[in-house]
Fold Class II aldolase/adducin family protein.
Amino acid sequence: MTDVRSEVAGAARLLAANGLLIGTAGNVSVRHDDRVFATASGVDLAQCGPDDVTETDLTGQVVSGKLKPTSELDLHLAVYRQTFAQAVVHTHAPSATAVACATNRFASMPVLHYQQMLLGGELRIAEYRTFGTPELAAAVVDALTDRQAALMAHHGSVAIGSSLGKAVDNALLVEWLAALLLRVAQVADPQPLTEEQQYAVIEQAITLNYGSPQAVQE
């Protein structure tokens, strides 16, 4: 499974290069059949390599690897057990984390830009729970219902996807949207798209097959 480990390590480095993973803060995993490959605890994610990725089963038992898996393994496993996800990205990205820390201002992340509909709409903020606990995992899974991302109060964000690439894309989108929200909030009260406008975005995306490469019709 060297290729899978390399993919996870490469995703971690990419996210670090984009400022979403800082030092050892954050984690990445992918599900491969009944196995999970996750970044190890305490690894400098900007330098993550295949040997820094640990293989476990769906109960969290280590199958291969020399390092202990991420302290948030329970969160990753809970997501795999209860959602469609094939990959999970958890970050402490600056903008998303800032929004998640401002729970007195933001009860959720509203839909200010139509691209947020790619994540399912308004993003919930899971209630604060101590990191690395089953309680946090349960809160995050609830917040991810019908969504591909969620924030974690006073902690960070989680993005999921049907592939590792899509989970990474979703994590990058969450951070861009969070930065947008913070900028808007500096100059005006954020005005979300109405429910009617959000449905129109969905209909148009379906009509245009938005977000997928398409060949020119001859």
